[in-house]
Amino acid sequence: MSLQEDIKRLNEQQSAIIKKFGKSSLIIAGPGTGKTRTISVLIGDLLHKNVRLKEILALTFSDKAALELRSRVLEYYPHSFDQCWISTFHSFCARILREQYHLVQIKPDFKLLTGFKEALLMNGICQRQQPEAFAEFGKVLHRRGFQQEVLTFISLLKSNLVSPDEFTKVLERCAELTPRARARMRELLTLFKLYERERDNTGYLDFRDLISLTIKVLQNQQTAELYRKKFRVILVDEFQDTDPAQFLLLSLLKGDDDSVKTAVIGDPRQSIYRFRGADPGMMTPKGQFKQKYQAKVFPLALNYRSATSIITAAARLNWREKSDTDGLLKACSEETGFVKVYKVRDELEEARLIGRKIASLLIYGENRRYQPSDLAILVRNNYQIDLIAECLQALHIPFAIAGDMKFFRSEEVIALASLLKVASTSGSEQCVALQRAFASPVFAIKPLWVQAVFSLLTPTFTIKTFFERLTDNQREDLPEADPETLVKAVSFAETVRILENCGEEPLTVVFARLLLVVSGLLKDPSSEPARNVLHFRGMISDYCELFQAQHARPPKVADLMPEFDEWLTYYASTLEQNSETSSEGIKIMTVHQSKGLEFPVVFICGLCEGQFPVNLRENLLTSTSSLEAMRQAFNREGRAVNFFNPYPVSQEDHLEEERRLFFVALTRAKEGAILTWPQRIGSDPALPAPFLKEIGLPAETVVAEERPLTPAEFRTRLSRLDEQALAAIEPVLAELEPLIPAEVSLHGIRPRDFSAAKIDGIHLPENFTFSASSLSNYVDCPRRFFFLNVLRIKDPLQVKQPYFVVGNAFHACLEKLHTPGSLWELGKMPDDNDLKQLYLENSQPLLDGLEFFQRHLEAEAMQSALPVYRNAVFQLAQLPARNTVGVEHPFRFKLHGFTFTGRFDRLARLGEDSAMVIDYKTTSGSAMNSEKIFSRAFVEEGLPQEIQMPLYLLACREMGWKHAAAALLYISQDAYKTNYKGMQAGFLRSAALNYGCGPSYGAEVSDSELDRFSLQVKVVLDEIRQQRVFDCRPSSQPEARSCLNLNTSRQPKCEFYPFCQERLDQLRHQEALREQL
How far apart are the C-alpha atoms of 468 and 497, rounded to whole Å? Predict the structure, then answer.
């Protein structure tokens, strides 16, 4: 959308900001009021008024926000070659420091401490200290939790620009501290000094150093003036999240004159990061920015996101700190929406209620029916998630947990971690790691054979013994395996032999060997397995870098392994988690993770004292009163910034912080919000959150279920018990089960044995029609056919996949080119202008939905492919260029009493009684030739693997054509450069089946072969007609889209694999038992 169009879309409040933008502007932007669009239009308008892009500095607090703002601005002016200064605070500071490093005596190629590296650094410091030297913290000095709290305390000091020297002076002068508080502060001061010394010695900066050193740079008057002249405009997004150091940085950039126009935008009611040092009062009317610069206040109060009832409820919150903008927020939506409050007995009943309400919204809806991705569950604490997730699982409702550390639990990471343990351990511990690695799907060794191997293991015949016999070719008593499995197993055994006893070798060398083992996973760097491997490599790289800096030698494998699991878990927790997961399930996340997101319906749970709001937040290392005493002592020193204490000093202060969180949670909802209040937490009564009273909505009491668990839930709980525990309660189960009538629980209360499960018969719908794809689905796996062609479950994201969009775009172009009666069908040779116009009118609109770079790559590829197609078809006559009977030509015929339907991409007449079906392929995979198509279609025994092409021949024969040909044309692949096996130079990759006519490179099909294919199809059709189960029976053929074959991302080709895992496991177990018998 152009700048002028966006300006026209602005409301009066937004337009006022653009028109009256002057010296200093304070923009109070409520939730859903379009602040990002306002900022981007403001920048676009300034550029339109001849302000250079390099003269505008826009600062945000996240890479995502910076990227979004930068993308919007560059859409307005895509051809600007100016420097772009739209970034996060830390990226901006790093850029300044690399320019002015000499002013603060640092190297221009300084390294940054990530959260993981900080933890490694602090751990190294604490490990070298003697616990006896720390009277207060000695007992916990080496614990990771304590070290993390120390890093949080150091972050608090550095965000307030406190140096170790200043901390020392103030600590000595602060008379209000108790002796114990002073002793604790001194020990923290010692760790602070050690941290700073170690950081300097290793050549690192942390993220707080970026801010403080940039402040030092700008305190140089000459340098500050340079940047004031450079930046004519400064904009700060999410200003409510700034800390004192960041405000000082802004003040130094702006200076005291009005030559630098400045605007800050945010909402003090959405300041939810106080625990990180953000000052909620920074942008209030009494805040520092308003007072220092006499800023003009612009409210943005028209909410485009939420329904009226949601905004009304949010407006009733009783804020302790009043504001002139309170009560201005207004909903633009004409929808009333809904906000409901439910009072439940306890946490279990709350989780069940949420599950039932979600099921109701998905099935019946409220004002409309919802999809799972329309709903979100927001919690205040992570521990609330488990019970909710369990209830959703019981109802088979799909969900995704934000920040779920999937990297940590991925098969790739588990396999690599297991092999590292193999390299550094011995005895039983090594055998356990070896078994875990051997069973990993990463190495694609058949699971049934692996389980057969495991069944042979004894204390004397270990997994290591097995591998020794395998590599020494002593396989007489080993389970039989096909050649491919043996090759993979021997290769794995050789890998183990190379890795054994490597504990004293350099970690980088050993890990490089591991990467070679899994190098196949890295072919597609964008795939999830590749990302997991690269994340793991990042952890090893960070560890090695820090270890080398601290110990002046590279780490050995043995250095990492004693605490390996702990470091791996910690590294996983530091990875940036994307809450906007691509999963189509219910989103479960904390309120903090939901900031910046929106959902049609939001559930806010645990609204009771102790959960939401949580109990008063305190520092674990020192008391709130000690911190407050230190704050006052620092501020008596006449500092450049006042010391800000992020911990609430009173219950009212804490409640205001929680109220802001509730406000953020409630305003994530677009159409409705459901709030729940559990009356008991554990065994303790729980009072309702004060916010519930403030919004003034009556709580509906939910009738508690009489039984603690339903029989199904009880069975689920029992299924988690081991055999010994089940045997202990078997007499009780035997006594209770006869008392439960069948109408209450068909399956009783014991854990179910699915091998004996009753399965309801399935019947094909009336007037069911078959197609080539439906038969192929059945041959690949009967259950896949059931999901796709009986239940008609479709992937809603499929039509948005690039390969699907590109295929449609190619087809649209060729469809227009060959439409009967078109200029080109009547004899005109399509020239370059014709092809360009065909692309612009028919293909380009379909590509517009792709990502920017993908769109341009595909557009270039398509425009290059069309002249190649013209040369092959119109000039070299590889296939008929004209005489088209129809494009997207429908057909319908009867075969053995069954109805078949479909569409030909193109049907061309070759003679009075002969025709050719042309099917266009845009896949980037390997092209099949005529011989391969023929061998897959016309098999002597079993079922054909190629259905489409011979079925097209049958369709033509049934439609009255005496002779027919079916040809595949790979239009997105390169043409032949030289003559090759009947293909001329310039021909496109192609394959054909000739039934009495067709191209010279086609494979000839006789009447008997086509009749045999027809009878084989009849076998499949009769089997489908008699099917009542459509059980899992995946084909192992290489081209089959089944769970036995993996795609390029090392995931099963069949998208329904997650629904079948349990059944597949049962079938494998039964097969293993049969083999044993």
Answer: 9
